[in-house]
Design goal:
This protein is mainly α. The chain folds into two domains: 110 residues, Arc Repressor Mutant, subunit A (Orthogonal Bundle), CATH 1.10.10; 42 residues, no CATH class. Helices cover 63% and strands 10% of the residues. The protein is built from seven helices and two strands, in the order ααααββααα. Helix 3 crosses helix 4. The radius of gyration is 18 Å and the shape is globular. The protein starts with a helix and ends in an 11-residue tail after the last helix.
Length: 153
Amino acid sequence: MRAIERAVHQAMLRQLGEAGYHEIRVPHIALLAHMTTEGRRLSEFAELMQVTKSAVSQLVTQLERAGLVERVADPTDARAALIRATPRAEGGFRVARALLADVEREWERLLGAEQLNALSQALRLLEDWTRTGDDSARAAAKGDAEPDVRYAT
């Protein structure tokens, strides 16, 4: 799984570089993958990325310098800031989404639609297993329970 992730990240870095986003590195991809329109607090990014707030702060500072993210006041708590993408980042998001769509088409060509769907379902079960730590994912795989389908493929 890590080799696949690395290959996709390297392809993404190449595409982003060609589109003028030379400052993006793999850790930035991890942060930007969790970006929302409304923005998130540093602590939310840290939790999602499973890194320290200090590490997230460093990434945000780098992306701020590049004009890709901004810190804005949190309307629910004046002491806190939200990090959100700037308009300049939107082009990079389009590049990334297009690349991911190309990757999915390539995987479907290699595996076929049925196998790709089975892989997607299996990965969802494994993801659920990482969250629950119980046998619910195994039960779903055996047909004893409905699989969780809240994630888009």
